[in-house]
Amino acid sequence: MYFNIFQHPMCPAQISHTHARRTFDRALRTLPPSLHFRIWPRYLLWSEAKGGSTTVRVYRRYLAIDPSITERYTSILLSPDNPESRPLEAAKLLLGLARKAAKRKYTSPEGKSPYQLLGEWIDVVEQYAEEVGMGIEECEKNTAENKDADEAEAKAVEMPPPPVPRSTGPLVRMGAASRHVEGQEPYDEDTDPISTRKLNIERIIRRDGLDVYSDQAGRLWTGLATYWTKRGEFDRAKATFEAGIASVLTIRDFTQIFDAYAEFQESFISALMASLEDPSEDDDDVADTEKELDAQMKSFEELMDRRPFLVNDVLLRRNPHDIQEWEKRVALWGDDDEKVAATYTTALETINPKKATTNFHRVYVNFAKFYEEGGVTGQAEPDLASAWKIFEKGAKVNFRTVEELAELYCEWAEMELRHECALSLCYLKPPFNTYLGIMTRPSGLCSAQHMCPRIPKSAITIILFRFKLDSSSRSSYGHSMSI
Question: For residue 416, what are the CA distances in angstroms to 31, 393, 412, 474, 480?
């Protein structure tokens, strides 16, 4: 009942401030710990009503014995009604909760997951970028200082724990009662609310975010880029957006980062255009602003033009053995023969035949036709030797199905017939000359199938029949087949 007097609106300041605090402290010192639960709720409510440093000191004392209300304390620190906002302390407390929750050492009273706690921490970082985080130079210096520790921690996580011998028992202290000693967490200045050192946001997001919650990469990369934007480090923000786009594996994450990147570019361009309308700008400043505006407009247009390629990159990173996506990549280059040839070469070097999707042989066939037809537009000189080499390389591939190899041989044979150079190549290029030479014998069909058991008998028959046709009889054969 006596404590209720301190919260009465008519209570004088001499009693409701210093006298009240000393009374609460005297009660905690006098009463046994079993009765403290009757004091602390009133003490905390009284401190919230006073605000400022009083709230901070009282809550810090209570959190030392019961950290379950840390989330409430962080909301008080960030409350707009709080005259002394402490975003750095709130950020460190939230980061500590997120790390403990990830290790299953903390359960949120509000049922929040570890990622939700980390998301709240990112919201604080975005809103109070200057007060919470380090600059670029400080971040790079701090990252270099902790490089060895991060590598050691990564190796420790990858290595399995050593086996515990069965004979190992609890530690027995000589001359004292046996007790269980729990290992304490090492001191971390990033989670110490009393420390005034700012946080290395980039390192924390990579360690506690991207390395743990890879399925939420879009939100994490966007939060990091927003942090640099709020600090005015626009080049660093662009580099962060580019790094995020180049590393995500899902279209959802890519869309989230790309939309934020485009919005950042648009807002930057709008700010530059608004500065040009300011009449107080000098001529030299106007010229520099116009030059920067032109560069940003060009960068924004290039970003929009790159979007189909970036989407294709995401899908190929997720599955580098997707034949359809490689064909889309080739189509995106249009009439650029150098890029098309480089894409086909990269695809053949990357795709694993055992993991490839359907129609892997079409990559070899289309690549060979690219050289046969003289590029995409047909303006270059046909290169039959390169097309022949591609078919020869494709014939040695261990495709997933026999039909793909048969189709490859059929396409190869049709190319030879189109250019009427099959017989000359048969005598010049092993081992295909040996293969056709066996087929021209009376028992050639059986021998050919014995040499290449993966090729169906029907495919061998078609290839043999097509290669035996001369130029005069091929037209009648095509007419009969059409009938």
Answer: 100, 16, 6, 13, 21
| Both tokens assigned to 197 | 């050192």
Sign of CA dihedral 202, 208, 214, 218: negative
Instruction: Render pLDDT for 433-467 as a digit per residue (tens, 0 to 9).
Output: 444 443 443 333 343 444 444 444 455 555 554 44
Rounded-to-integer distance, Cα 326 and Cα 321, Å:
8
| Region for 446 from its dihedrals, namely left if φ exceeds 0, alpha if ψ lies in -120 to 50, beta otherwise | alpha
Q: Output the pLDDT for position 476.
A: 41
Q: Which two tokens stand for residue 38?
A: 């009757």
The closest of 99, 55, 61 to 74, measured between CA atoms, is 55
**Considering the chain, what percentage of its residues have pLDDT values greater than 90?**
42
Those residues with Cβ within 8 angstroms of residue 58's Cβ, 6 or more apart along the chain or in another chain: 43, 44, 47
Least Cα distance to 289 among 273, 266, 268, 267 occurs for 273
Phi and psi angles of residue 79, each rounded to the nearest 5 degrees, phi first: -65, 140
Q: What are the angstrom distances between the C-alpha of 353 and each of 220, 222, 249, 329, 358? A: 35, 37, 22, 19, 10
